[in-house]
Amino acid sequence: KAKNVKGYAPICLGLEDFYVRRLYLRIQDCFGRPIASAPDSWFDVVERISNDNNKTLQRTSHTTRCLNLGSYNYLGFAAADEYCTPRAIESLKKYSASTCSVRVDGGTTKLHAELEELVARFVGKPAAILFGMGYVTNSAIIPCLIGKGGLIISDSLNHNSIVNGARGSGATVRVFQHNSPAHLEEVLREQIAGGQPRTHRPWKKIIVIVEGIYSMEGELCKLPEIIAVCKKYKAYTYLDEAHSIGAVGQSGRGVCELLGVDPADVDIMMGTFTKSFGSCGGYIAASKDIIQHLKHTCPAHLYATSMSPPAVQQVISAIKVILGEDGSNRGAQKLAHIRENSNFFRSELKKMGFEVLGDNDSPVMPIMLYNPAKIPAFSRECLRQKVAVVTVAFPATPLLLARARICISASHTREDLVTALDVISRVGDLVGIKYFPAEPPKI
Ligand code: PMP
């Protein structure tokens, strides 16, 4: 198949089917018309098994039940849970799966109002607003916060939803080097002074956008330093906590708690419910004025059907468990467990000689493969040995920085992790991705 596509064959050859199909999706002629389309769907259909803490998934095409190291199910709430599930079922019976209404016209149930209050309390901001999808939260909110005449300064590795929101806003967009407060300052200085007297400030408003944990890097944001720069140049901060809220911090309150940042110093806090809370949807938490402004102006609030009530109830219950308001200490245990699991897995991988990105405490750990041609061997061999990993390549990463991205969950047991490490080590030897000498075992 690949040979038929002029110019692309050398890249495609030797790659796994799904990757070839992914490249197909992107092949267009000079008028932007597709000249090659993907044959069928290019993803595996999986069965999720939720009665075993959702550690496993079954790939129907391979009929293999495997240990799931790819899901964002950080706290294990995307599973049958003794506190969350019965309440979600009750809310389904009471409210049905959908309100079939927009928030302003009959789509706001008591649950929506309760979750907005709870989210604001949880993240430490005065108010919050919900959206049906995390992606839309970024892509629809950013244009409501800033427009023509404004300046967005965005981390170079920010998520696509942020990139789309920034592009759609009409504001000028500048990018700073990933997680570099020094480069952020350079960009700000240039944009504010711009070779003119230092008092010159040509922008109506400046927003700096960063993520709490970078989803392809597993790295924590240098938030204290970034906030210091923003304060110095009077820029607003926008923090996407999709991967950090619920997953890090002593009580799960994300990177602010982990890094000792006062939430009052972050102007706009964004997060999703699709990871630590095992649900769907997203939120913005900010000052009452900003939230009121969004409630009155954001099309995704005014014209979109509100979040599904059972999904709302799931988040309410999960936050209550995290806060210990369910009357148990399961939340604290889950948080301790994800931290221990993440730090154990990361340090063991490093000892084996893998190049692992990211920081301690982060449950996201990319193992570098570099050459995209290593993807099929790595993922297939892991799968054959019953470990499901997500591999990421172009266009989500630069072409030669392919990686396997492991996501650790509080629901993984030590036994699961030891099994997975064993498999990954063997496959790593086979594929040749141990770039450092292994640490000799301690006697
Ligand atoms: N922001 C970041 C940083 C993300 O990684 C993602 C998706 N993983 C989103 C936003 C979009 O969230 P959702 O999947 O909940 O729509």
From TrEMBL:
Q: Which Pfam families match?
A: Aminotran_1_2
Transmembrane feature ranges: none
Q: Which GO terms describe its cellular component?
A: endoplasmic reticulum membrane; serine palmitoyltransferase complex
The subcellular localization recorded is: Endoplasmic reticulum membrane
Q: Which reaction does it catalyse?
A: L-serine + hexadecanoyl-CoA + H(+) = 3-oxosphinganine + CO2 + CoA
Provide the family line.
Answer: Belongs to the class-II pyridoxal-phosphate-dependent aminotransferase family.
Supply the name of the protein.
serine C-palmitoyltransferase
| Source organism per UniProt | Digitaria exilis
